[in-house]
Structure prediction request, 190 residues.
Amino acid sequence: ITPLDSLTKSRHNPPMDKIVCPSCYTKSANLAQAKPCEHCGYLDTNLNTESAERSTLDDLHKKIAESDDAGKIRLLGNSFLPDNARDLIEAGLYCLPLTENGIAAVQKAAASRLRAIITKLQILGDSDPKTQTALQEFEQKLNRYDQSTQRENGIIAIVVMVVCVLLIGALVWLGNALLGNMAAGLILFL
Prediction:
């Protein structure tokens, strides 16, 4: 039996208290209860009812809220997306404030999840006016986030260029000053 076999075997015939998550390879008590992995948000089963999806989504949102920034990034990037439009909208609404506040990596993870939610809503093709309104709001929010990120990246590029120009100028000035002092010393020596 290889280590991979034992990992796979323990995942498929696990003790009921913990299962090894196939996404992050940690032991997860939640997967044994058909809930998302508490470490990465992976869900190993298909949920058959909207109430099960809703309950799982609520658990996920609670776990994200309780996590540190690294945990939020991991959960936002790897966790499941519901299959019904109502819960997808709820998941999108949960992401909206995360794209505005906090550290940039959490904002980026929330924006990526929002992109996935938008794509899934488009694939579902739900023509309900509420779904279409939510889809438009999500797309507008994502466009504002992208514009803000591009603006910040532009400002950073300008600052880096200015610092480089100042550094080059200082090196040229210092070189001229040293060469001038050396020339003066050489003249005095002669």
